[in-house]
Amino acid sequence: MHLKKKLKSWRKKSMNSNNFITLIIKMIGTQCNMRCEYCYEHALGDNDHKKTSTSSDVIEYLKNFLDYHNVFILFHGGEPFLANYNEVAIVANFIKNNFRHNYRVQFQTNGTLLNDNWIGLMESFGDRISLSISLDPIGKRDLRHSNSFDYRKKVIENLKKYVSRIDNVGIVSVIHKYNVLDYENFIIDMNKIGLKNFTANKYKGDLGVAISELEYVDFLKKIAIKYIKNKWYKTINLEPINSLFSKKNKLCIYMADDNKCSYFKTFYGVRDSSEYCDHVVNKNILKIGKQCKNCSVYSFCGGGCLAEIKDETFCDARKELYNFIQRIKHENN
Ligand code: SF4
Ligand code: SF4
Q: Among 55, 122, 297, 320, who pairs with 90 as Cys (CB 3.0-4.6 Å)?
């Protein structure tokens, strides 16, 4: 076969075998109006990925993915609402007019800069839009900070004002040793102001504030029991609990798939994009080892996040979580 034809057929094959793709778009790079202690973006250094891209830069990049059948476009940062509104609106129109298949759009924000204009732009995507807001329980010590304003007051005000305007609004939290005991009340409080979607991620860095995987699993078990016992599942979507109990888990950190990290692509700017998610700084780590492939819970655990350095409790904790889920499923059948 002619080389050009061969390449074309290879591209087609690899595209079809990976028909679901998440595109992480950092239109303002990693610039942010907050300085959270645990933010991994700060670890990149002040000059990395700080540039602002134009709508044409982003559109040129997006054109590579028009044939994918399921595309999740995630406006990310830093803080994506620091971008120029008109430039984002041009990209939004391009998406609406050119993505032919199933696509969804999400803004991942700290929630401080939401306003009527941004909400209007998001509403224009109809049921394809979701809004994800980073907010943690305060706990004994809040690791989220702003230099010059009361960020939490602002976010809560915005949530109260806008939660009814977008159908799919969620809160994503980072769980660490100062707030692990406060998450349950946090959900209850946020639910009172209309929030229904929650994600509790473990802090994965090395600041000395992390909980171990075993402590995280204990946290998940306790909250799962409450979730089921109090029938919270009727009104609340709590991740990763829902995915762990469902037959089709789509969370990469539990996915048993060698190629899982390549289902994410990150755009930092022109000639500055990554074939992987934003967490990947070293491509060599993206291999699932033999130990995992031969492990009794591999199909459940998937070897965890491939960019994470696992603590010594990791494997026992994942096995404990697997057994817990099987037991609860059995008891409820
Ligand atoms: S429990 Fe440990 S060895 Fe087993 S799949 Fe998970 S990370 Fe790999
Ligand atoms: S590096 Fe971790 S978070 Fe990123 S895609 Fe891979 S498993 Fe998921």
A: 55
Q: Confirm whether 2 is domain-assigned.
A: no
177 occurs within a structural domain = yes
257 near 292, Cβ under 8 Å? Answer: no
Q: For 99-121, how does the pLDDT look when each residue is reduced to its tens digit (9 = 90+)? A: 999 999 999 999 999 999 999 99
Query: To the nearest whole number, what is the mean pLDDT of the chain?
Result: 91
Higher pLDDT, 286 or 234: 234
3-class DSSP state of 268? strand
- Which structure tokens are listed for 23? 């595109």
Q: Is the CB of 320 under 6 A from ligand 1?
A: no
**Is 304 touching ligand 1 by the criterion CB < 6 Å?**
yes
pLDDT band at 129 (very low <50, low <70, confident <90, very high): very high
Residue 104 lies in a domain: yes
Q: Is residue 28 part of a domain?
A: yes
Tell me the H-state helices in the chain.
Answer: 3-17, 55-62, 85-98, 116-123, 151-162, 183-192, 213-229, 241-245, 290-293, 298-301, 314-331
255 lines ligand 1 (CB under 6 A): no
Q: Domain of 255: which CATH number?
A: 3.20.20.70
User: For residues 130 and 163, is the Cβ–Cβ distance under 8 A?
Assistant: no
Q: Is the CB of 224 under 6 A from ligand 2?
A: no
Q: Cα–Cα distance between 29 and 92 in angstroms, integer?
A: 18
311 CA to centre of ligand 1 in angstroms:
12
Domain count, the chain: 1
Size of the chain, expressed as the number of residues it contains = 333
